[in-house]
Amino acid sequence: MIIRVFRWRPEAPAARFDEFPVEAGEGTTVLDALVGIRETRAPDLAFRYACRVGMCGSCAMVVDGRERWTCRTRLRPLARQGATVTIRPLYHFPLVRDLVVDLQPFVERMKAAGAAFVPGGEPPEATLPERPAIDAAIECIGCGACVSACTMVRWDPRFPGPAALNRAFTLLADGRDAGATGRWTTVFGEDGVFRCHGQAQCTAVCPMELSPADSILRLRRKATRSLFLRT
Amino acid sequence: MTRDVADQPAPVLHRDWRSRDAWRGTRLGLWAWLLQRAAAVALVLAIVLHLRNPFLRPIQAIVLGLVLLHGLLGLRAILLDFGLPVRLHQALFIAALLLGVALYALAWWWRWY
Ligand code: SF4
Ligand code: FES
Hints:
- The complex is a heterodimer of chains A (about 230) and B (about 110).
- Chain A is an alpha+beta fold.
- Chain A has helices at about 30-40, 75-80, 105-110, 130-135, 145-150, 150-155, 160-170, 180-185, 200-205, 210-230, and strands at about 1-10, 10-20, 60-65, 65-70, 85-90, 95, 100.
- In chain A, the strands form 2 sheets. A 5-stranded mixed sheet of chain A has the order 2-1-5-3-4. In chain A, strands 6-7 form a two-stranded antiparallel sheet.
- In chain A, β6 and β7 form a beta hairpin.
- The longest helix of chain A is centred in the last third of the chain and has 17 residues, at about 210-230.
- Chain A is elongated.
- Chain B is mainly alpha-helical and about 110 residues long.
- In chain B, about 20% of the residues are buried.
- The interface between A and B is medium-sized, with 37 and 31 residues.
- The structure holds iron/sulfur cluster and FE2/S2 (inorganic) cluster.
- FE2/S2 (inorganic) cluster (FES) binds near residues 52, 69 and 71 of chain A.
- The site of FE2/S2 (inorganic) cluster (FES) has 12 residues of chain A, from loops.
């Protein structure tokens, strides 16, 4: 099968795709193939990974049009649909080199949504009704796949995006957090949670199987309730 | 001479919707959204035509189809807003389409005038 790899270097303005024929074994992952290509054929090919076992999220790329962790994606099942597998860097992030992107905007969107813990509140009730939903949502490891998959992120640069809103949701429901006031303003402001189109692309791609779309809808319900009730 | 690359803003890749690759990983949620919006725009035009000549059967057929499509997809969005889990969104989309076809057939077959 053929692997088509996106190539871009800051010194050379034009992007291109390089094609490499690879032999994929039963368990060969996309990341294995990239490592192989770099070892034997393209020593200057840049990509990022750390754990190789689906824990760190740093190997996220767009493989055949879909955001995936390359260390957890096997090549064989992909190539059955076509002999060529296309690998690009995540969308919506500035390119650094080849498949590597700068995740700084991810951090900025987190900050914009006030998605950092502010200590000082009261410990939460043990029976917080939202607790099961939060238990899942706190597992986000910030890989950026959902941000790349979100269409709204492109059209509204001030939209915090799925990961940041997911984090804001966990914090707004956390009694120990004292940052709710500022967060409330940004999250429910004009460029906040109501800009989401509900396409659930984020939920479809999240390799941790979280559902940022559910978190966003929960935030919306919270905002709507607050119009009528003092919660 | 080397250009000082640090001064240049790095390019950002977005999906190029004209390319096949961009649509490859597209999930049903995007289609549900697109269809509902497209139906809304088409509905505005169809209603204008319909008001000019309410008895034209082809335009009636189009309005009925668009109303069902737009309305049922709207119902889907409302159900999700009210707390149906997002994991059901694809099933709801398909259900809305099937229900739309069924209601369309029923309404068209059962002409009351
Ligand atoms: S929500 Fe999922 S896809 Fe998004 S950054 Fe967190 S782990 Fe990655
Ligand atoms: S390298 Fe850590 S998740 Fe893939």
